[in-house]
């Protein structure tokens, strides 16, 4: 009877059933020794009266190890707050950054509020531009999502969210010369440009404070999208200026309603 010797050491050995050998490694049909790097087991074939013999090959101890903190870790232990209401996650996050992020959250909510007022206007029965209503409703939801993302990040960095008061937006968007569609879209472009300036100021502050994680948040989730939104709305303004206040506005509205596909 063939017996397989599984060498995993020099002092101890254990016999296991031959039928269990597949649990320990790959096929043992070969007569040549082979090595299983995952289990660090060497298999060999010899004659004997037992199923499989295993011996330990580990030369380095893996138990009873001792961890001694590095000097840098010791320094961090000294600065972890012990006050009951102090944040334990806060690191390299200044009071100035915390306040500035709360201000930006307020900006996002205010822009969302204005967009929601535009949605309500274009959804009226005597205006009935459903495409523009949908566009501004989606824009409102997007700005609200941005505000909530910033709130989550504020908590993640150990700051405290402080929601500020919002200004009541206009409810009428009809313009004697431009009409309501062009006037509202120009207002939307102004809001996006203003928001972009606020985000750039926040980015400069994060850079001045050497807060790489704050910078990464702004660059990864906000600044790129902001440029794309400005480009898109700028094109809408240009198209509406060509159309005037006539029948073309209805076609433009249908284009928005159909997801950017012209009617």
Automatic annotation (TrEMBL):
Would you say which domain of life the source belongs to? Eukaryota
Q: What is this protein called?
A: Ferritin
Q: Gene3D superfamilies this protein is in?
A: 1.20.1260.10
Keyword set includes Nucleotide-binding:
no
Recorded GO molecular functions are: ferric iron binding; ferrous iron binding; ferroxidase activity
Q: Give the UniProt record's GO annotations in the biological process aspect.
A: intracellular iron ion homeostasis; iron ion transport; response to oxidative stress
Start and end of every Ferritin-like diiron domain?
Answer: 91-244
Q: Which residues bind Fe cation 1?
A: 143, 146, 192, 226
């Amino acid at each position: 009877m063939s017996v397989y010797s599984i060498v995993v050491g020099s002092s101890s050995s254990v016999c296991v059933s031959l039928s269990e050998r597949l649990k320990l490694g790959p096929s043992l049909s070969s007569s040549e020794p082979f090595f299983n790097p995952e289990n660090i087991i060497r298999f060999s074939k010899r004659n004997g009266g037992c199923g499989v013999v295993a011996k330990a090959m580990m030369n380095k101890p893996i138990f009873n190890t001792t961890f001694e903190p590095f000097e840098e870790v010791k320094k961090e232990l000294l600065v972890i707050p012990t006050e009951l209401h102090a944040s334990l996650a806060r690191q390299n996050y200044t009071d100035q950054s915390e306040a500035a992020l709360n201000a930006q959250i307020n900006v996002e909510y205010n822009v969302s509020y204005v967009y929601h007022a535009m949605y309500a206007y274009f959804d009226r029965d005597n205006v009935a531009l459903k495409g523009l209503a949908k566009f501004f409703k989606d824009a409102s939801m997007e700005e609200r999502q941005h505000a909530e993302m910033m709130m989550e990040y504020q908590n993640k960095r150990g700051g405290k969210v402080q929601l500020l008061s919002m200004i009541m937006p206009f409810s009428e968007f009809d313009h004697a010369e431009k009409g309501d569609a062009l006037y509202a879209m120009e207002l939307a472009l102004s809001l996006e440009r203003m928001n972009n300036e606020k985000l750039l100021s926040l980015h400069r502050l994060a850079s001045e404070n050497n807060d790489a994680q704050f910078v990464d948040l702004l660059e990864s989730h906000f600044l790129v999208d902001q440029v794309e939104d400005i480009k898109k709305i700028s094109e809408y303004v240009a198209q509406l200026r060509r159309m005037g206040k006539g029948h073309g506005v209805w076609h433009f509205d249908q284009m928005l309603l159909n997801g950017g596909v012209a009617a």
